[in-house]
Amino acid sequence: MNIIVILNGVSKKKKKFYQSILPVLQQKFSIQVLETQYANHARQLASEAVLNKAAVILSAGGDGTLNQVLNGMMSVANECRLPSLGLIPLGSGNDFANSANLTLDPNDLLELLTKNQPLQTDIGKVFCRNGNKEEVVHYFINVCSVGMGPATVQRMEKSPPWMGAELKYLISIIQTFFTHKPEVIEVHTPDWNWKGNARVVAIANGRSFGNKIYIAPDASLEDGVFSTFIAGNVPLLKFLLYLQQLKGKKKITDDQISNSNTTKVEVRSGNSAMLETEGELIGFLPASIEVMPGQIGFFRK
């Protein structure tokens, strides 16, 4: 089985990967490791791996690396049969790894690869606009969001290079929390509509985002539907309390908090608000987001 590992070259856990994880995998498989060298390199490496007919691609990094790998694979999906996808969670948040019940224990991954029974997994497809107002297509496997999510990512991207990912996130989320103003957002689905000032609008395939904020604790990766989470114009201090409750997997009872399911979402804003997926800024509203059931064979529990 031809296995290619796409490793985030700046991961703080890279040493652990080479010392503790790779040797275990090499006991049974021939592994080719490709390290990213620059921004979005993982996307290029993934598309090349698909074209070179890799049987398995393992994303070694966090949610952002996984997002790039997924998009690299999907960019050539019409040209080649897609390989199976797996994840070695070397990130700081690892939200999708949590939804997929994955750990850093190499023996768990070795067992999944040895069984070679990847599970068909849903992904999301996003049609939105880039900075030139041209339509672009992007894919996600965990969560796509509008509001505080992309505002935090934007701040992280402007942070000094010497900051690590965890410090960047901590400072950025604090700054965003106290400065971000709710935006007027419209959400339209085949079954329901919503409009109002929103702090967060999230379309979830996985269970959590933003480092274990469980906006969809009961979400399934293979049911063919999204879980939506909308936080309206909740007072700031109350919203902080709600975030802590969500980290504890508690459901919020509030008229300003909405949870629903759907297969397709149209999201609009008069201010061309930003979107993010897995911590990657992808474009601006308006956006159309639809589920692609069972699109990827993923090594998970």
Tell me, what is the CATH class of the largest domain? Mainly Beta
* CATH fold-level label of the largest domain: Tumour Suppressor Smad4
Poorly predicted runs are none
Oligomer: single chain
The overall number of domains is 2
How would you sum up the global shape? Answer: globular
What would you report as the Rg, rounded to the nearest angstrom? 19 Å
Beta content comes to: 25-35%
Given the structure, what is the number of helices?
8
Query: What is the first-to-last residue Cα distance?
Result: 20 Å
- Biggest sheet layout: 11 strands, antiparallel
Helix vs. strand class: alpha+beta
CATH architecture of the largest domain: Sandwich
Question: What report would you give on this structure?
Answer:
This protein has two domains: 3-117, Rossmann fold (3-Layer(aba) Sandwich); 123-296, Tumour Suppressor Smad4, CATH 2.60.200.40. The model has no long low-confidence stretch (mean pLDDT 94). It is built from eight helices and 15 strands. The strands form two sheets. Strands 5, 6, 7, 8, 9, 10, 11, 12, 13, 14 and 15 form an eleven-stranded antiparallel β-sheet that branches. A four-stranded parallel β-sheet has the order 2-1-3-4, sandwiched between helices. α3 links the parallel β3 and β4 (84-89). 29% of the residues lie in helices and 34% in strands. It has 301 residues and is of the alpha+beta class. α1 packs across α5 (106-115) and α2 (41-51) packs across α3. It has helices at 14-25, 41-51, 63-74, 95-99, 106-115, 148-157, 165-179, 236-247, and strands at 3-7, 31-35, 56-61, 84-89, 119-129, 135-140, 143-147, 183-188, 193-198, 200-204, 226-231, 257-262, 264-268, 274-277, 280-298. The longest helix has 15 residues, at 165-179.
